């Protein structure tokens, strides 16, 4: 499942630098995650780095983009083939 940044985001600028897939960018008001690029850090780290560094815990699972661990690994493999 890709991740989602909620409206509680304070634009602290920590998460974009932590994302190895460059999936996080500034939206109209808060940061947003590109679901096509988000692998929840599968292939890079054991846990999503953005979630680890978020000071307000506003990054959560995106229920509209459910993916299995295998699907995330396939997405990672396709991006870095």
TrEMBL record:
<keyword id="KW-0813">Transport</keyword>
<feature type="domain" description="4Fe-4S ferredoxin-type">
    <location>
        <begin position="1"/>
        <end position="29"/>
    </location>
</feature>
<keyword id="KW-0411">Iron-sulfur</keyword>
<keyword id="KW-0408">Iron</keyword>
<dbReference type="GO" id="GO:0051539">
    <property type="term" value="F:4 iron, 4 sulfur cluster binding"/>
</dbReference>
<keyword id="KW-0004">4Fe-4S</keyword>
<dbReference type="Pfam" id="PF13237">
    <property type="entry name" value="Fer4_10"/>
</dbReference>
<dbReference type="InterPro" id="IPR047927">
    <property type="entry name" value="YfhL-like"/>
</dbReference>
<protein>
    <submittedName>
        <fullName>Ferredoxin</fullName>
    </submittedName>
</protein>
<dbReference type="GO" id="GO:0046872">
    <property type="term" value="F:metal ion binding"/>
</dbReference>
<dbReference type="InterPro" id="IPR017896">
    <property type="entry name" value="4Fe4S_Fe-S-bd"/>
</dbReference>
<feature type="domain" description="4Fe-4S ferredoxin-type">
    <location>
        <begin position="31"/>
        <end position="64"/>
    </location>
</feature>
<keyword id="KW-0479">Metal-binding</keyword>
<keyword id="KW-0249">Electron transport</keyword>
């Amino acid at each position: 499942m890709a991740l989602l940044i909620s409206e509680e985001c304070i634009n602290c600028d920590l998460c974009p630098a932590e994302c190895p897939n460059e999936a996080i960018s500034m939206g109209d008001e808060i940061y947003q995650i590109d679901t096509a690029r988000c692998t929840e850090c599968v292939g890079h780290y054991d846990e999503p780095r953005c979630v680890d560094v978020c000071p307000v815990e506003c990054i959560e699972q995106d229920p509209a983009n459910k993916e299995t661990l295998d699907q995330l690994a396939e997405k990672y493999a396709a991006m870095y083939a």
